[in-house]
Amino acid sequence: MAAPETQAPAAPASTPAPSTPAPSPRTRKGGAGHRLRVLRSERLTPHLLRVVFGGPALDGVADNGFTDKYVKLAFPRPGVEYPEPFDVPAIRESMPREAWPIVRTYTVRALDHAAGELAIDFVVHGDTGVAGPWALAAAPGDELTMMGPGGAYAPSPEADAHVLVGDEAALPAIAAALESVASGVPVHAFVQVDGPDDEIALATSEAVTLRWLHRDAGEDLVETVRGAEWPAGTVHAFVHGETGDVKALRSHLLEERGLDRAWLSISGYWRRGADEDTFQAEKKAAKG
User: Fold this and answer.
1) For 99-128, what is each residue's pLDDT tens digit?
2) Residue 268: what are its φ and ψ, rounded to 5°?
3) Which domains are present in the chain?
4) Continuous segment of H or E residues that includes residue 122
5) What is the C-alpha separation between 30 and 243, in angstroms, rounded?
6) Are 2 and 170 in contact (CB under 8 A)?
7) Measuring CA to CA, which residue among 151, 214, 149 is closest to residue 177?
8) What is the model's pTM?
9) Whole-number Cα distances in Å, 79 to 50, 76, 101, 144, 279
């Protein structure tokens, strides 16, 4: 799961700002999105389920080059009949709010146009939430509308080292980032999950220091990062996850580690005790 992040300001001349992939065509604002078809699903851990999508509409999904490619998934409300073609903006104009599809933000784990596949990893906790139960029930042939992708982060090849920090929500972006860093470049990755059964295989090497943190054992993400060894040179950091943790780490990285803001991709994906609708409304209200 992901959420749009604030673009970093330009870095001073002595510290080159990390380069980002050239922009590519995206779904037009207000467009109907891409109607994708479920090809298969795979249980990765007790709480992580991968759904692989395909279908003709995948040809229109641009690979923007970011490892944190976030998309909006539109889930139909049970019992509501929607006009065809399924067009979210048109539905919002013609139907009452209580009938609007439920929109959730997710990060694309992998996009392979050659294979005709797009993978999204869903965090699932039984029948809790909207996206998780949908993913658990998804069968080949089921369809779902996706809008996007957007994005703003990919590991800069200009950095001397990388730091990746997050939880299950950020795990797809962290996994993609690990796959994109050049061989031999130091990476320090910190990932918090419920327990050992929630760990997954990630691309690692001798240059990668990977630390799994388990909530069930009381291991704290913020305190672990604060006490960790910091790599030398220019560090490009990716810190995404629960809002409280992100806020604490923002202060630590900028004020205590002295990280330049231009080399920090940071965003709260979610907040404890709030669903995405509530969380996004709170963020909007906070911005005024």
Assistant:
1) 999 999 999 999 999 999 999 999 998 888
2) -85, 120
3) 34-150 (2.40.30.10), 161-286 (3.40.50.80)
4) strand 117-123
5) 28
6) yes
7) 151
8) 0.86
9) 26, 9, 11, 16, 26
